[in-house]
Amino acid sequence: MSDDRTQRGPGSEPERARHLDLDAMSLLLDDALPPAERAAAEAHLAACPDCREDYEELRATVRLLHGLPQYAPRRSFTLTPEQARLAVSPPRRLSWPGEGVLRWAALAVAALLLLTTVGQQTFDRSGGPAPSAPIAAPAPPQAAQPDFAASEQGAPEAAAPQAPAPAAADAEDAVSTEANHGTESMRKASESVDETRSGGAIPPGGVSGWRIAQLGLTLALLWLIVGIAGLRWMRRLH
Amino acid sequence: MSFRRRRPPGARGGPSDALTTDPADALAPEALPTPEPAIVRDDGHLMAAACDGDLDAFNLLVLRHERTVFTICLRLLRDVQAAEDATQDAFLRAWISARSFQGGSVRAWLLRIATNRAYDLLRVRARRPAAVLETEAAEIEPIWSTQSAIESPEAGALRDELGIYLERALTALPEDQRTVVLLADVQGCSYEETAAAAGAAVGTVKSRLSRGRAKLRQTLIDDPTAAELFDRYRRSQHETVDAPATRGRDSDDE
Fold this sequence. Notes:
Chain A is an all-alpha fold and 238 residues long. Chain A has two domains: 12-67, no CATH class; 96-237, no CATH class. Chain A is built from ten helices and no strands. The model of chain B is unreliable at 1-30, 130-141, 143-149 and 241-254 (pLDDT under 50). The interface between A and B is large, with 48 and 69 residues.
């Protein structure tokens, strides 16, 4: 469009520079040129028929745009109290700040998970031979451990493709490696405890409280991550 | 509000004190009478009340701006039902997010919500090819033209005919230019309001407006029939206006 000015006539460089460009014309139409520029532009228009022609065409175009009809809607769009209430309350309930809460919750759960892992390790090492040791039942937990580890590893994989909550995913990652490491060394520890005790312990009555806590926390973390991803997805829909 | 336009904005009622020497501006349509209280509260006050949950105050804003919002939605969507949906949706969203209003022009804020909504709908519709035909069919004739023709019959007829070409040319504009032209030239928003409504800087608005106007003019000139009508329209303007070529159309604002 701005080529218009160059197409016209031989137009040596200084001569072309004197022509009004489209932006200047547009501003002049809106009376938005600074006074000095406006005076210069008007002087040029008075002297240059080509620019005046362009300007007149633009002016007629803008006038036509002004004259385009407005449309009266068939009905009014005022909100009824019901609409207003419905519009406000559901979004409040699943309001988006929820994601922040979820993220904090995920971090908190991840921290707890870490804490239990560390706690378990220290407990098993130092408190293992103590009278309370039989509670830490060796056999079933060992059977459960592969599952546990698998779910731990599965979590970041499931979260990674969506990559919705980098912070939470990172935390999860860190926790899971930590936890894997933890369970690994814990398994060794409990094995060695088994060997040293040579089966003298009371047969395992149940799963240790530590592991129940870990399992529960892992599940909670997974749910939180899914929740955060879901929230993000829903928000994108809106 | 709109300092560089003489046309009363949107659904603002009242007689056009703006009817001045310029016939093009005299085309400003009679606004619908809106049931407003005797004490007219300005947009800012109403908005503040709406933030506190005053639905009546908010509905006054709806009445005040619904025609502008609907008109721009209709121009973007070219479909009455879709425009109604977009308008209603925009006002619902505005009500929900009233607290997020950060001052400035309420109209611009509403227009921003509405145009975003309309473009969303357009994109959804673009994925369903069936609906495109519908838009073509709705393109031709305005259904509720509310303008009062205070101009020579010939100029009015020419303007109506050219309007069809102009509406078509508008749909061919790039999205950003179309938005700005609709806001500034069709709805009469100031540069500042247009910038707020389009989510762009004032400088960007100026250049988009200039490019959009130039493109529209070019489209009119490139079509032989439209070019002939355009030429006659311009001559009819000259006869009635008798304004010096160098005067901007808003120059009598001062």
